[in-house]
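Lecture notes, part 5. Sequence design as translation. It can be helpful to think of inverse folding as translation between two languages: the language of shapes and the language of residues. The source text, in structure tokens, appears below.
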């Protein structure tokens, strides 16, 4: 079996077009590169003989697609980070409404059997309250394989930009693309105790403080 197989990706059809792939560059004012050792360790540990199913909630981009092409994997590219910006949090005020929003933005349904092995949620948890974060995990859990890994970035500053960034995987680094004219809002600054409570039954696997001040986490079922 060859060690390099171009990825197949599955995504709601309206969410992945050539225009959307290119949009990550045109709608940002800056791109900041960060080290992400846990992310790359996760991919380095993938056996070339085993297919992995990856959920990436950021916007499709050429850098990340090139990265994934080095692995035998099936990708779910949902653009959830940008879809999240299209609704007001105040209108998603019940578990039922939140579940409907997740179905709309991610496209997974109750009877789907996706067996997700790697979940890349990037910085999205910083933009969710406790109930939404727990609801997100409950929604994704039936789609996960028995030893799924969950990767997130948690901000440690009191304020953050109003809209989530997009993330592009480059060679040995991650490029963060922030949308234009994003205002500043309060950051929840989730600590490890919070995360262990809200991300359960995922358990902490590794954590590292990046030089950028972002805490990088990998959790595992």
């Amino acid at each position: 079996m060859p060690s390099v197989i171009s990825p197949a990706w599955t995504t709601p059809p309206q969410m992945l077009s050539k225009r959307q792939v290119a949009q990550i560059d045109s709608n940002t004012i800056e791109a900041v590169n960060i080290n992400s050792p846990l992310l790359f360790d996760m991919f380095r540990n993938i056996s070339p003989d085993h297919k992995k199913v990856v959920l990436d909630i950021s916007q499709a981009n050429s850098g990340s697609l090139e990265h994934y092409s080095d692995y035998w994997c099936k990708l779910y590219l949902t653009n959830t980070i940008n879809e999240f910006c299209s609704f007001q949090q105040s209108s998603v005020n019940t578990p039922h409404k939140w579940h409907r929003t997740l179905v709309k933005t991610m496209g997974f349904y109750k009877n789907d059997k996706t067996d997700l092995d790697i979940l890349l949620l990037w910085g999205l948890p910083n933009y969710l309250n406790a109930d939404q974060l727990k609801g997100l995990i409950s929604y994704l859990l039936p789609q996960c394989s028995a030893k799924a890994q969950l990767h997130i970035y948690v901000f440690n500053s009191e304020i953050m930009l109003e809209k989530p960034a997009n993330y592009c995987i480059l060679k040995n680094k991650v490029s963060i693309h922030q949308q234009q004219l994003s205002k500043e809002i309060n950051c929840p600054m989730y600590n490890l105790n919070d995360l262990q409570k809200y991300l359960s039954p995922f358990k902490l696997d590794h954590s590292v403080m990046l030089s950028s001040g972002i805490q990088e986490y990998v959790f595992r079922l």
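The translated text above is only one of many valid answers, since several sequences can fold into similar shapes. The chain has one domain: 8-220.
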